[in-house]
Amino acid sequence: MRQFLIIDADDTLWENNIYFERAFDEFVAFLGHSSLSQREIRDALDAIETVNAKTHGYGSLNFGRNLRQTYERLCERPIDEADLGAVMGFAERILECPMEVIEGVEETLAYLAPRHDLTLFTKGHPEEQKLKVDRSGLGKYFGHMAIVREKDAAAYRSLAAERAMDPARTWMIGNSPKSDVNPALEAGLGAVFIPHAHTWVLEKEEIRGGSDRLTVLERFEQLRERF
What we know:
Layout: E1 4-7, H1 17-31, H2 38-56, H3 60-74, H4 81-92, H5 105-112, E2 117-123, H6 126-136, E3 144-148, H7 153-162, E4 170-174, H8 177-186, E5 190-193, E6 214-216, H9 223-226
Parallel strand pairs: 1-2, 1-4, 2-3, 4-5, 5-6
Helix pairs in contact: 1-3, 2-3, 3-4, 7-8
């Protein structure tokens, strides 16, 4: 039976968070704090990102803003514009990183596209996300693409209604419990959880169990067996 497959982008179709992690490592080295551990610096950044995401959303440019605020809060030396420019540069270079499509993804999309209705559903800065899709070469497999500020249950209900998706035949596929799995289940859709070793810490949360609409796979290519 033909299904509606809603598919996440970052860290589901291509590598993403590893580049943010590398930028953070560069930031920690540049900060050179005398007493705070990398974990404590990460906690400070996480707190700033949690607040700012509600206003500014996601993406490398907003990540740069968050790094700058963290630097201003934790820096132990006089702050000058050159230092702030260097901090922003760690984030800006993320856009220059190679587009690394995850193994098995393109072959699986090529298999699924003729058989089901595929929608790419992602959050972040619209132009940045569109650029990733273009660079990946995967856009041709999707009949529709939607970029939203936040992927919550309301966003899934809206997408399903707009695209006339039958919830009983609709599945969200992604690596994030917070943005992909739990809100899709809350909206009455099915969910396929494909864990990623480097999922952003703020996208992690306990998956709400007890649903017969939840499938867990180890690799994206296993979707060929499931659908």
